[in-house]
Amino acid sequence: MPRKDTPEPSPVADFERSLDALEQLVERMEQGDMSLDESLAAYEQGVGLYRRCQTPLEEAEMRVRL
Length: 66
Description:
- The protein has two helices and no strands.
- It is mostly helical.
- The longest helix is centred in the C-terminal third of the chain and has 30 residues, at about 35-65.
């Protein structure tokens, strides 16, 4: 049976999902209820989400400048 290729999410949708996840993560961290290990894992996850958000922003800025 042929495998259906799932369409890749648009960069805008991916950006919005990453930004939402980052905002939720920050809210959880700000509550102060996480252990040190949980905080470190959340921080690492947050850095990854930040990077996923930063690239599309930089690309959009470059398009605007052009």
